[in-house]
Fold this sequence. Notes:
There is one protein chain. The chain contains 11 helices and 13 strands. It is of the alpha+beta class and 363 residues long. The protein folds into 2 domains: 4-109, Aspartate Aminotransferase, domain 1, CATH 3.90.1150; 123-362, BirA Bifunctional Protein, domain 2, CATH 3.30.930.20. Strands 1-2-3-4-6-5 form a 6-stranded antiparallel β-sheet. The chain has a 5-stranded antiparallel β-sheet with strand order 9-10-11-13-12. A hairpin with a 5-residue loop joins β7 (123-127) and β8 (133-137). The longest helix has 26 residues, at 166-191. The model is unreliable at 1-6, 113-121 and 123-136 (pLDDT under 50).
Amino acid sequence: MARWSTMLTGEELFWHLVEPMYADPAVQRSTMMGLPCVRVDGHFFASLDRRTGALLVKLPQPRVGQLIAEGVGAPFAPAGRTFREWVALRDPDRRRWRALLGEARQHVQGPRPAPRSGSARPTHRAPAADGSRVEAAAFAGFGKAGLAFLAGLQHDNTKAFFDAHREVYQTELFEPSKRLVIALGQALRERVSPNLRAEPRVGGSMFRIANDLRFNRDKPPYKTTLDFAFWEGSQGPRTDPSLLLRISTTEIHLGCGVFGLRGVALDRYRSALRDTDAVAEIDALITTMLNRGAELSDPSRVRPPAGFDGTGPAVRLAVRDGFHVIHRVARPTAVTSVRLVPWCAERLARFGPIHRWLVTHTR
């Protein structure tokens, strides 16, 4: 049997190993010389060379020299300039990469002072995607001040209002969102699929609160919802099948789906729609959720593509290059407590069969 690490590309392994580190709010995703990287307390400690798939880590100079002498690593010399505290490791080796990521983080961060008695936030030991366990601050709900801020943003959606309440957003919504992703991600891996990705960062499972106004100046500057996605695949929530969660001022939306499919994924989807058994299965699953009050996303095509004629379940889905099934419910009081995690997990798990169908027939 092939080793587990050989099943992943260098980039896939990099993000797989980095994901548990986001449990520490000090660890953030960033870029360095155009390369994806991670920082701790604002200092770079690891990156990825997408051209070669090599892991780049920052270590003491003697340690860098040792790894190069052993043939494990190579100098990191972009544009001919050698960075003496950085080493490149091209062979994706889960154990070695994980150990060196830990070394690099400790080298940059230094020893952490022990928290004063009575000042520590409650923690829990959460299993990460690779089976390890990572200590994280426990999710305790969203702050009432943060939810009030969202309501206020509906009435005054301006940069001035947001800037005046930025600290409330950060402490009462953004930081709790990271902890929710960790806790809910673990619950969904247990109930829906062990391969679900849950990354507590913007661009991962969390969506940016600011709207992109480059192509639509009519949008308000900020969203008034908190949006989350837990996806299965190597591309990300905008491409891979995902479980979805939206928290608004009055409702919570729960569901699953996949955004507009293209290329091979779209071909596989349409092939499944031509399979009588596959169509009957997904039609029954969607109908069950619709009968429970869920909604099916609007068609993306005026008429079905060639080969799909008449009516029926195949045509109903063929006019959708991917779809979402979403159930809207009143926002529960659990939103301000730890009970939000099991509340969401129970309801999102109901969409598990549809999610698994999409994974099977689009990837």
